[in-house]
Automatic annotation (TrEMBL):
Residues 355-397 are annotated as: Disordered. Pfam families: 7tm_1. This is Substance-P receptor. It is found in: Cell membrane. Belongs to the G-protein coupled receptor 1 family. Disulfide bonds join 119-178. It is a multi-pass membrane protein.
Length: 397
């Protein structure tokens, strides 16, 4: 078989340039008729796929925009973790807006309508957005500072640069195509974009899970310590669901592009077009699930979404004040609890005593004695939990 050149998004054409077969590869090339577009679909199929892809764009762009608004417009939502979630939401909204429609048009018609400049951009920035998404999840799993947002995007742009640099357009009889001249780069992308970050995230969450779930909360711990650990467990569960959703959505995509080197004959069948549209839809749909996950598993995000969509007749507004915490007293006690593991027993007793200033003197003395005893036995566990995943102590639940 003559050499194969891999087009953007999996469309394949015979390689007209001499490759491993030397000059003889030119003689083995198929006749001109085989360059015709074999993947023309009936209008009703195109319409169904158009609705499916349009759903991704609307849900992803609107949902991630609301997530960014909830975090940036409310002071108490501006935590380190949530700033990384803003970066994740921006990357996914950008990918949905700039990538999905163009991918759909190209996959349906197998003809590039957008010119050589956008061919390069299409293979550069949306790929960088995917890098930014998965590396934001990695930063969250590793408990890194939000300052890394700039570094994440710098690394994402550098890693996506070869994809854009080697993108070109080629003229076939009756149509123009956009392709990547360096197909081997796909293996590097699979490692850097999927396997490596998921491995790091898996190890990080395994360590955090062992800290949070492997040992039971001491029975004599204070109620605030119980609340702190429970809140951290909820956030970790939510982020694990986010990562698993990303992994499941992108797994068929990477398998599809890897198999083309093992079973190239499969990609010459007419049915491969429908397979590709389904695989690409699943990968692109990863951009719309995170807002739904946040809304379902996080009380503050749920309140924010209800407020954003309060104009809908079937949405109850809820208590919008929940985004700014419930009261000054709750804010004070929550702030004290977030520092629980770094305070000695005397300071802990004083903080809890101040938070419960309305208690009478006998009750306060009893509470101080109880907390000093309980924290003495559980302080080491609390310190381990906080130091392993400290930013979750300020994450709304």
């Amino acid at each position: 078989r003559a050499g194969i050149r891999v087009l953007n998004w999996g469309i394949r054409i015979p390689n007209r340039s001499p490759g491993a077969g030397g000059a003889g590869a030119m003689e083995d090339s198929p006749p001109l008729a085989s360059w015709a577009n074999p993947f023309v679909q009936p209008p009703w199929q195109v319409a169904l796929w158009a609705v499916a892809y349009a759903l991704i764009v609307v849900v992803a762009v609107v949902g991630n925009a609301v997530v960014m608004w909830i975090i940036l417009a409310h002071k108490r939502m501006r935590t380190v973790t949530n700033y990384l979630l803003v970066n994740l939401a921006f990357a996914e909204a950008a990918m949905a807006a700039l990538n999905t429609v163009v991918n759909f048009s190209y996959a349906v018609h197998n003809e590039w309508y957008f010119g050589p400049a956008y061919c390069r951009f299409h293979n550069f920035f949306p790929i960088a957005a995917v890098f930014a998404s998965i590396y934001s999840m990695t930063a969250i799993a590793l408990d890194r500072s939000a300052v890394l947002v700039g570094l994440i995007w710098l690394l994402a742009l550098l890693l996506a640069f070869p994809q854009g640099y080697f993108s070109v357009t080629a003229e076939l009889p009756g149509r123009l195509v956009c392709l990547v001249e360096w197909p081997e780069y796909h293996f590097s992308m699979t490692v850097l974009l999927y396997l490596l970050p998921l491995l790091v995230i898996g190890c990080a969450y395994a360590a955090v899970g062992r800290t949070l779930w492997a040992s039971a909360i001491p029975g004599d711990s204070s109620d605030r310590y119980h609340e702190q650990v429970t809140a951290k467990r909820k956030v970790v569960k939510m982020m694990i669901i986010v990562v698993c959703t990303f992994a499941l959505c992108w797994l068929p995509y990477h398998v599809y592009f890897t198999l083309q080197y093992l079973r190239p004959e499969w990609y010459l069948r007419r049915s491969i077009q429908q397979v590709y549209l389904a695989v690409m839809w699943l990968a692109m749909s990863s951009t719309m699930y995170n807002p739904i996950i946040y809304c379902c598993l996080n009380d503050r995000f749920r309140v924010g979404f209800k407020h954003a969509f309060r104009w809908c007749p079937w949405v109850s507004a809820g208590e919008y004040e929940g985004l700014e915490l419930r009261s000054a007293r709750f804010l004070h006690t929550h702030s004290s609890v977030s520092k629980l593991s770094r305070m000695d027993t005397t300071t802990v007793a004083s903080a809890l005593g101040a938070a419960d200033e309305e208690l009478d003197e006998p009750s306060r003395a009893e509470r101080l004695s109880l907390d000093m005893t309980s924290n003495g036995s559980s302080r080491s566990d609390s310190k381990t939990v906080s130091e392993s995943f400290s930013f979750y102590s300020n994450t709304p639940t």
